[in-house]
Amino acid sequence: MEKEMTIHTEKDFNYWVEKGKEMIRDRQKRISRAKKWKFDTVATHGLYDLNQALKLNNGSIMEPVYLSPAQAYENSYEMEAGLAYEMPTWCYSRIANPSTYFLEETAALLETYGSDLEATALATSSGMSAIRTATDSFLVKDERFPKPNFVASAKVYGGSFQQFWVRRWQEQGIEVRWIKNPLDLEEWQSKVDDNTRFLYGEFPSNPSVDIFDITAVSELAHAFEIPLIVDSTCASPALTRPLLLGADIVVHSASKVISGSGTSIIGLMIAKKNIVSKIGTDEMREDFGTWAKLWPYRDNGPSISPMSAILTLNDMRTLRMRVEQMSESAMKVARFLESHPKIESVHYPGLESYAAHNLAKKYMKLVDSDKNLYGYMLAAEIKENAPGESINTRKFYDALKMIWRATDLGRVKTVATLNAISTHQQQGEEGRALAAIKPSTCRIACGVENADDIIADLEQALNVI
Ligand SMILES: Cc1ncc(COP(=O)(O)O)c(C=O)c1O
Fold first, then answer.
1. Closest Cα to atom 9, ligand 1: which residue?
2. Which of 18, 126, 269, 369 lies 20 to 30 angstroms, CA to CA, from 231?
3. Which of 3.40.1390.20, 3.40.50.1970, 3.40.640.10, 1.10.10.10 is the CATH number of 98-316?
4. Ligand 1, atom nearest to 267 Cα
């Protein structure tokens, strides 16, 4: 006969607090173990070990999808300790979920790989909500700095441009100061003042593939006691880990190369411990990721589906190998296009003609190798007969047969995008000029197909012009 579960009333509040400490020690042990592994091993196993499988998950070798909305507690004291944040708990799925934890723990390890830095990751419902979560807490009311502003590279994804320009500046009155040339440190310096709350840049930017000196800009930020936030979607930790270069917080649209097979819209925010910020409390600075999860994330609700978390985690295991193949193809495609008579110019960090090629060489390297690789994305200008035209560009674009016409990138399938009529359509002439997007700009995000086939499709489409 089955025994009924015993309710242990002797397990009081302190019992659960002690239990929580034991759980934290066990987690630290698993972190130390993972810190000794190579990148691919971390990506594959994260913090999920045999003990977790046997004790918590019926021996499941893969991290399970916990679709349950809430955790049941053994008694009232466990609930009280958990909800007082005195012990690790996943209480309610909007706030925390075991499947989401598996993803977050692995993301934090990958983004700090190759260092003894510790970081905390937070998975969000989209890249845009990761950006919102990463920036919100620095823009709060603070009497000491009455007119908040922030300084951001203008070479950012169209959605980020809209969030900063329309939602923050026009609707909320929080000034965004654009950096036209993110390579120009003097321009960054000239825009920062005592009311600046953070600096922000994309590395490399979507779609213009611009980069900036993360270390130099982080030093400037820290001199003003503010954090540097980097959107590293188009590099990914397989190539560049901004936290190791001085950044405080990294955001990803994990909807891109991190979840390359394209099953989820998802964001990640990864913050290192002890970030620099004159705004906020000590608790917030010490562990921004955990603080954000326990407070604003809980209250604002940008959580993700546990299913998306596990789908993303599954893709993340093969991140390095996909980034290698995709980047090698992008390099071949860039060289092919650069030498093609119908192409005006190609913007790709791997090309010698790229203005910041040496900086890219310094910051973009396939993890666990000596190989410089420059990412999967490039921007090409198609030759037109007059400035501002897109006649040839559209002929070429509409002739593509295998490559998808879509607004997407980082996917296992190659995608081409005309940014002036898609990602940056709503920004108007001025916004597009700031982001260096012309009607003849075509962004190509290489997938994992054989590079010869990608080039063959581009070549036949260029022949149509
Ligand atoms: C660089 C970059 N950041 C953020 C985003 C927004 O991410 P999501 O579409 O997941 O909200 C994108 C989307 O394309 C992007 O390319």
1. 127
2. 369
3. 3.40.640.10
4. 10
Q: Is there an atom of ligand 1 within 6 Å of 233 CB?
A: yes
Q: Which long-range contacts (CB under 8 A, 24 or more apart) does 282-288 make?
A: 284/137, 287/120, 288/120, 288/137, 288/248, 288/249
Strands 196-202, 343-347: pairing is unpaired
Provide the β-strand partners of residue 124. 267
User: Quick one: CATH architecture of 319-463?
Assistant: Alpha-Beta Complex (3.90)
Residue 72 has pLDDT above 70, yes or no: yes
Q: What ranges in 36-93 are assigned the alpha helix state H? A: 39-45, 50-56, 76-83
The pLDDT value given to residue 1: 46
Atom number of ligand 1 nearest to Cα 202:
1
Query: Where are the domains positioned within the chain?
Result: 98-316, 319-463
Q: 180-225 pLDDT, tens per residue?
A: 999 999 999 999 999 999 999 999 999 999 999 999 999 999 999 9
The pTM score is 0.96
Report how far ligand 1's centroid is from the alpha carbon of 253 (Å).
5
